[in-house]
Amino acid sequence: MQHRIVVLGAGYAGACAAGYLARRLHPSEVEITVVNAEAEFVERMRLHQLAAGDDGRRHQLADLFAGTGIRLRVARVTALDVHRREVTVTDGAGTDLIGYDTLLHALGSTAADRGVPGVSEHAFDVAGRPSALRLRRRLDELGGEGTVLVVGGGLTAIEAATEIAESRPGLRVVLATSGRPGGWFGPKARRHLLRAFDRFGIEVHAHTTVVGVDASGVRTADGTVLRCDATVWAAGFSVPSLAADAGLAVDDDGRMLVDRQMRSVSHPQVYAAGDGARAVGDNGRPLPMSCATAGLTRMQATASIIGDLTGRRIPVSPLAYTGNCVSLGRADALFQVVDREGRSTWSLRGAAAAWMKAGVLRATAWNQGHPTYGLPARRLRLPGAIDRPVEAVRP
User: Fold this and answer.
1) Rounded to whole angstroms, how far apart are CA atoms 172 and 159?
2) What was the pLDDT predicted at 340?
3) What residue stretches are annotated with the FAD/NAD(P)-binding domain (predicted)?
């Protein structure tokens, strides 16, 4: 009987993980199924561009997985039973159960409303393709006139504000954040960021906490009302409650607690990669939610799955976050390097950083389309010992 590996999610972590496992494990002994809510691979790092009006290139998951033996199930994951080892999925045809022996949770994250009233009803976000397209439709309705307010001061907020300002110059773009936009950047990088805001005419409200959103704008903690025609919520991310609801050990944000091998600390037959995993980096600090973290945790998770199933030594992949690369429109960008402790060191700015960011985007998309390229052709077999069940252990 084939060992059933189910990968939940086909984003930056899940798609590559599935392809790697398909390349390294023998197809007669392993069945790999990927469950994803959409039929396309979503380049999340480009969603702010999609929202602003750029269609870009689309990648069908069926094409990405062609020839790998991977089974694709386009459906939404609605429940997880770690005791029965079953995943409940829902699509247009109804509800179904998918059994597994090994599970990789790579569902990623969504926009976090932070408990602020009105966000879900009135705000837009760029955390997923449907929501990015919803924002795009709203920007089209404005027809080049009106005010767009971006809430947040992190990478997503910065990229959304600058991309909208550049792509739709008739709109007035405002950014409101509880701290300083790009406050973690070094002095040179932050000066470059502020010059970009000035060049695009972006109005910045720093140290401004938004406590309510409605159809006409936002209300701040000091009672100020900022009027706008569209509110873009980019104040952080949250993960689905699937892991917590299933009884897996999670942190206060719902991220699955994992060991150094990306195994759940409570249910070792479940692995996690990407935003949904609370992975501790080599510096002893939790890795941030990011595309880079998805790659780092995916490499360790797949290595661990292969090692655990075949009995081979598990290599240790580095878990080191090296920096942030943020677009400031299409011709400008910042790459801020950080040291082992997360402190900003040197930065690359301007056209050179934009060229670098464009290269990262192209390379990432290519890697998703060629998940098995360059990997050893040898496929590993599984010893019979892996068929024994693994009992859940509570922390």
Assistant:
1) 15
2) 81
3) 4-293
The per-residue pLDDT for 184 is 87
Using the predicted structure, report yes or no on whether residue 71 has a pLDDT greater than 70.
yes
| CB-based contacts of 252, cutoff 8 Å, min separation 6 | none
Mean pLDDT (whole number) for 127-145:
95
3-state secondary structure of 144: coil
Residue type, 330: R
User: What is the residue whose two structure tokens read 């602003």?
Assistant: 52
Tell me if residue 47 falls in helix, strand or coil: helix
What amino acid is encoded at 228 in this protein? C
- Number of Cβ within 10 Å of residue 381's Cβ equals 11
Mean pLDDT of the chain: 91
Question: What pLDDT, on a 0 to 100 scale, did the predictor assign at position 332?
Answer: 96
Run of H or E including 336: strand 333-338
Report whether 36 contacts 74 (CB < 8 A).
Answer: yes
Which SS3 state, helix, strand or coil, does residue 323 take?
A: strand
Looking at residue 384, its pLDDT comes to 62
Percent helix, strand and coil across the chain, each rounded to 5?
A: 30, 30, 40
Residues 6+ away with beta carbon under 8 Å from 187 = none
Which residue, among 224, 175, 193, has the nearest Cα to 334 in the 3D structure? 193
Query: Across the strands, what pairs with 237?
Result: 111
Torsion sign (Cα): 344, 346, 348, 350: positive
Instruction: Indicate whether 387 pLDDT > 80.
Output: no
For each of the domains in the chain, give its residue range(s) and CATH number, in order of start: 3-109+239-321 (3.50.50.60), 112-233 (3.50.50.60)
Burial of 169 (0-12, 13-18, 19+ CB in 10 A): exposed
pTM for the model stands at 0.91
Length of the chain: 395
The number of beta carbons lying within 10 Å of the beta carbon of residue 142 is 15
Continuous H helices in the chain? 14-24, 47-52, 61-64, 119-122, 129-142, 155-167, 187-200, 242-245, 291-310, 351-369
Between CA 43 and CA 47 the distance in angstroms is 7
Closest C-alpha among 229, 232, 273, 270 to residue 249: 270
Q: What is the pLDDT of residue 370?
A: 66
- The predicted model gives 282-309 an average pLDDT of 93
Across the strands, what pairs with 337? Answer: 323
